[in-house]
Amino acid sequence: MSQIIIDSRVSNGHVTLQNLPLEDETEVKIIVIPKANLSKMSFQNSQSLTRTVKGNIADDVVAERRNR
Amino acid sequence: MEHKTYQTSHSADLIITISDLTKIEFHSAILKRVRMKEIELEIAKQLFTNYEKDTELMNVVEIDKRIQNQAVQLLNRHAATRNFRTLDSLQLSYAIVSNEHFVIDYFVASDKSLLEAAKLYFLIYNPTSDTE
User: Fold this and answer.
1) What are A53-67's pLDDT values in tens digits?
2) Which residues in chain A have their CB less than 8 angstroms from residue B26's CB?
3) What range does the domain containing A16 cover?
């Protein structure tokens, strides 16, 4: 089975795929995975909102896993 | 399975894959801090909104039978000899099953016990220790 990973961009809810190395009329299944755009993510804002928190919240997640 | 990638991974080509379990763990951790009165509930709600917005740009994997079965196999392999528990097995299982469809370059976590097991399957990265 051939799996092809190709980059594209969503435009008005549509995605165009070009130069696919497959015969015409080949049926395909398409899985769309978004790329992370760090500049659009809210890590800095979340960091700012939790500035007063003591320690590392990730450590709480670890502690809960270990305490179960 | 033949697997072709037409671009190499770099920061502009970053795909973050996380499990749907992460959302539950995140809510639990934040709400614990609300109980401890370190975070106001309104701030927690903003953090949850941020999480939802950010995960729109992530590959969120939902649990299925394959992930559950893989988690049991992982427990059978590791849990008798190391500190490897239910949620460790699930988180690692999501990654192993996802990796069959889309290659994962690094398994990222700050949980050292989880990373110890994960490094048997993936390159690992701990952002809190800044070492691979």
Assistant:
1) 888 898 999 998 887
2) 61
3) 10-67
